[in-house]
Amino acid sequence: MRKTLHVVKTPEGTELRIGEKVVKDLGNVDFETARRAAYNYVWERPQCMWTILGKNNDLVKRPS
User: Fold this and answer.
1) How far apart are CA 11 and CA 36, in angstroms?
2) pTM passes above 0.90
């Protein structure tokens, strides 16, 4: 089975999500810590094939 783990940056902090379900709330962490947490989450669940994607949900408008 293939699953996608999203590393989502929100105004409140960083979360690991599968779909819309938050599987781990990391709080305010830097990029390296978030990446390490994502790899550890995947490593502990070898029964699936994983894809890790980053996503930035900051409420900042991008220039048009």
Assistant:
1) 20
2) no
